[in-house]
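fyi for ur records
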Amino acid sequence: MKPHEHAQPPQDYSRYMDLNEGWVDRRIFWDEAIYERELEAIFARCWQFVAHDSQVPNAGDFVTTYIGEDGVIVSRHTDGEVYVYLNACTHRGNKICFADEGNARRFTCNYHGWAYSTAGELLGLPSEHAYDPGDIDRTQWGPRQARVASYKGMIFATFDPEAPSLDDYLGDYRWYLDAFLDNDEGGIEFLPGTIKSYANANWKFGVENFIGDAYHAWWTHDAGGRAMMGGPFPPYDPSDTFQASVNGHGWEFALEGVGDIAILGSQEVIDYYTAQRPKMAQRIGELRARLFGSLASAAMFPNMTFLPGIHTFRTWLPRGPRKLELRIWTVVPKNAPESVKQAINIGCNLTFNPAGTLEMDDGENWEGNTRTNRGWVSRHEKLHYGCGKSRQIEHPEFPGIVHEGQFNDANQRLFYQRWADLMNAKSWSDVPQRYTPRYAGRPTC
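which gave:
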């Protein structure tokens, strides 16, 4: 079987859920065989975020990360292009880069000294005279390359040559992404430094929390919210609150424009965005200007999430069905004053990092969600995902499958629908098209 080909799924994964009734089988968060199929059918197939332009601005800059459990190097070569390839020597398989980030002219394997360029080309072998003519063609022995594409500074990669283009993969979700990535002419940048932590939890619990679980905030984060805002969260008001899903990508939001920015606890940041709001409206429209900064969270399938107003950005890297590696960054407007960037960074880290007032609450819950499945009886039970089944609407401006109300399981149900579709598909041509795009081509600001 070629690397991009996928085996026939051994079972119908749709049997692990009934999204019309509103339930999901707990085994998808515990079973080893299901997890192995995820690595093949989802992580080896889908486009995944690997870096931002601001992390690799110069030739030789690199970061290392993972696509599923496959380690990869993301590097900017001397030709200005970004390449993504396996972080594994093609001789005996050892890593060729052990650093998280940096600048390099080449990568050299510790074991036998095989050296590779920042484009993933095999450059040379020590004692190459030991090889007879015809033993090795160096042009054929670079590490496996991924397809690379970017959207407004965000760099994505996939190992599947048959995957749709990144624009098609994102589809109308770009309309929402632009509210975050392109509300100012300078765009965004990642502040230096990556926070890494681990949790004994299934990766899907973290993603589904961000794709549309405002419901937990008023209960789980009551104490943390009081600490950051000096008082409780305002009473939940379902008016002007929505969930939208496009091909498994999701965004849940209100339209008040200030809720998450206020959680940062900085008057300077509030004042900055108050002044920016008219400029945002001119650039991305009044509706998206109200959407940005509201009580909102978002996720791109399968494992990229962010909170637009709190400015935390993260990827959920699977480490087995019962463990995840979380990588976190603070994202800021590139043109913002340095004092505003630092105020955002402080507020972001006070709330959403492993020691943050809100992150600690969530991590404990996700571990509990996973750990209870250790029991044989427990793991064969169902979990309820039926909130808001009848709230789907047609909205004149919001693209995607839209539901009213932030207290709603709609985006989670559609996330698991996409999960089952991919798990069942032998190739991309077998993946059902459950949404008709509203925009032709790339939506503009």
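The mean pLDDT is 92. thats all i got for now
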